[in-house]
């Protein structure tokens, strides 16, 4: 199965972000991808965290969800909409949600980011809990590819990457492919991004697709980028350093089975 991880440099202009996303989705379809993954906050990186509140949508309706549904249907793609803000119970909070759509335009899975990022090195500071409500449950979906294999796909977002227990849960459920749409900071991404992604692939003997924000945004924020596709042996299949573009590679279910047979570590767990 060919998979595309889409890298963006989103702004505060939702309309322009949608245009950028659609261009990359069209490029993915032209390359023969069956699944295309947008990055975290593909729809908006605003001047401040509270900007997300202005574009939040109830689950199941709204222009952002319509966009993802239409793109999947019109291009015949499985599309994972990185993340978008969905309505939470509290008026001043939203969920940071990743939604998966099948080629018929139906939403088949929703994952609300569980782990909320907090970082302060004295020069830059982030605290997602000021605006976000944490999710509480993993989510996965089945993707029957053109070659007849049914891929089990696990959803996660950005900071989740630092919590291996989430990915071990997916391994126990037989997940073949882990998605990690992200907006990693340049500071943390430069030292931790690739090593964490490769570790998650190796320890769970699964493919990993990480679609990232990658560049300097109008609000001054700098994201690391380096969108990656990684095989179950921890090898990087394709990557892009910075700026918008499509990272595409073939995932081989035969290779997946070979690695799991060759090194049956998932069968050796005792805890």
User: Residue ranges: pLDDT <50 for 5 or more in a row?
Assistant: none
Q: Overall pLDDT, averaged?
A: 97
Strand content: 25-35%
Annotation, overall tally of beta strands: 14
Structural class, by secondary structure, is alpha/beta
Full CATH superfamily name = Carbon-nitrogen hydrolase
Number of alpha- plus pi-helical segments: 6
Count of domain modules: 1
Cα distance, first to last residue? 32 Å
CATH architecture heading:
4-Layer Sandwich
In CATH, the topology is named Nitrilase/N-carbamoyl-D-aminoacid amidohydrolase
Broad CATH class: Alpha Beta
- Give the biggest beta sheet: 6 strands, mixed
Helix content: 25-40%
- The H/E string reads EHEHHEEEEEEEHEHEEEEH
Strand order of the largest sheet: 5-4-3-2-1-14
